[in-house]
Amino acid sequence: MSRHRIVSPAEVQRLIAQNQPIVIHEGYVLHLGEWIDKHPGGRLAILHMVGRDATDEINIYHTNKALLMMTKHRIGRVELPWANLEPPIRSPEFYKNLKLGEKSGVIAHGDGHRSRKSVDLGSAAAIISKKLMPVNSCVRRTSVTPDPEKLPLLESEAPTIDTAEDKLRHREQFATEEEKREIEEGIRDNPSLDVATQRAIVEDYRALHQQFKDEGLYQCRYSEYAKESLRYGFLFAAFASLLYCKWYLSSAVFLGLFWQQIMFTAHDAGHRGITSNFVADTLIGAFIADFCCGLSIGWWKSSHNVHHLITNMPEHDPDIQNIPLFSTSPTYMKSILSSFYNFQFVWDGACDFMVPYQKYTYYPVMALARFNLYFLGWLHLCSPRAAQLGAAWWTRPLEIVFMCCYWYIFGYLLVWVTLPTWPIRIGFVLTSHLVTMILHVQITLSHWGMPTSDLGPTESFPQRQMRTTMDVDCPAWLDWVHGGLQFQAVHHLFPRVPRHNLRRGQELVREFSAKTGVKYHCYNFVEGNKVVLSRLEQVGQMAKMMVDCQKSMAETGESGLH
Questions:
Q1: Same domain, 254 and 355
Q2: N or C: which end of the chain has fewer CB within 10 A?
Q3: What per-residue string of b and e applies to 30-55 under the rule 16 or more CB within 10 Å gives b?
Q4: Would you place residue 115 in the very low, low, confident or very high pLDDT band (cuts 50, 70, 90)?
Q5: 275-295, pLDDT tens digit by residue?
């Protein structure tokens, strides 16, 4: 089969309908069936690009060596510009055929030249995360179709079917109307979605990418890490010295600050922004995250890679799937099924009760979020997702060993053996973990206050990244406090750029924004917090309004549906 033959859109659709993972890159059709199980970034990163022109996503995430390797997966060319198709994993059919897809598995096919694989594009998320739980364990898995035998026998036992259906229909209608309103705002406040306008934005973005390369912004400045190592060493030495002096709670504060600061480097390693070598950066990231902090870098990478590609999509971005504790989008009122977790997030009474108050629970939950990260890390390492890493199979046992070492050192030698009494132990653990809430606020700040609306397949990658991401403005001398997380919009446009070069990158992105009309959102830390709290309050008020409306329906007997 010639790699230069023209492949028609109809043929691409036919191949995708046959469960072939087809992606468009640089005008070529890539058949990734042989690669999808070996992809270090995970299967979902590929599945969300099926049928799409993923040129920009692929180019910014991969080194020249990796891009050269991709050429062997070419099966032809397409005529540009390419009209993006909806990836099967994002289609409603994915939800309808989920259980059927789980049974179909993976089928091998031949094309006369070499063996290719078809991948169940509708159930791949289920296969790799069948046992993986979501962020909040209190969310219940539900069947898409209720079992008639389990419905109440008497009307007095529960609301009638009509009443329950009316409530569900009303909630979905309410959520749909709010979604439409936000889509209208997004279309109004951003450049036109017509092909010509978005194509011009893409061309300017690619020119900007080349400017990043020409200025050497992909080159890591190791001298900056030498300076940071001194700061890490000071914080750890302060913790150890105060612990030796038996100033236990004071030492806990410095341990928390050490964790908060050193995780910035783990973030860099997770994006291969230190050495650009997968093995070296994985080892650095695992040592810092798993050994020093007890957090799974593998879990973080599995969710973070998807987050970067489909930022703030409620059904697909795991970073914003947090009900019933938090909802940043009215979409969650529809009880969405997460393609990442293969788990239905049910909007139930707990959401009705908690979401209206989420503005007030934001900081308390952030203060305790580290305990949830421990849970998620171990859950990931025990799940099939962690085992399906192809050539990177060794990362799973490495992480398990490192995390066991962390709990032996921190949990046993420090908390159990060194600390003298239970009140001190509890106080030490809580204090050290509460301090890290700074990091959790920094992580959520750039996205939780931003739009979650989907403006359609014509929206370009750079416009969506800038529309859904916010930067934090601060003086250069405060960069060490934020650790590069204040440049999230720049980082989402160029995720492999080392963070010490992001401040220069910010200047170039501002110029790009002025030229293209794509708005660059940047607020100081206090203003950014206000944006997040305002969004939480807005969605909370939506939830309260819906609950009040349903109560009125129950009292008056009016369905409110027209």
A1: yes
A2: C
A3: bbbbebbbebbbbbbbbbbbbbbbbb
A4: very low
A5: 988 899 999 999 999 999 999
Strand partners, 472: 523
In the listed set 128, 158, 191, which residue is the last one of a domain according to the structure?
128
pLDDT of amino acid 90: 84
CATH number at residue 37: 3.10.120.10
Of 63, 93, 128, the position where a domain reaches its end is 128
pLDDT of residue 121: 56
**pLDDT tens digits along 472-489:** 999 999 999 999 999 999
- In a domain? residue 460: no
SS3 state at 343: strand
Closest CA to 505 of 57, 53, 60: 60
The token pair at 435 is: 């301090």
232's torsion region: left (phi>0), alpha (psi -120 to 50) or beta? Answer: alpha
DSSP 348-406: -HHHHHHGGGHHHHHHHHHHHHHHHHHHHHHHHHTSHHHH--GGGTTHHHHHHHHHHHH
pLDDT of residue 190: 95
**Domain limits at 49?**
9-128
Q: Could you tell me which of 457, 461, 446, 24 has the C-alpha nearest to residue 204? A: 461
Residue 332 shares a structural domain with residue 445:
yes
Q: Are residues 240 and 357 in the same domain?
A: yes
The amino acid that residue 51 corresponds to is G
pTM for this entry: 0.86
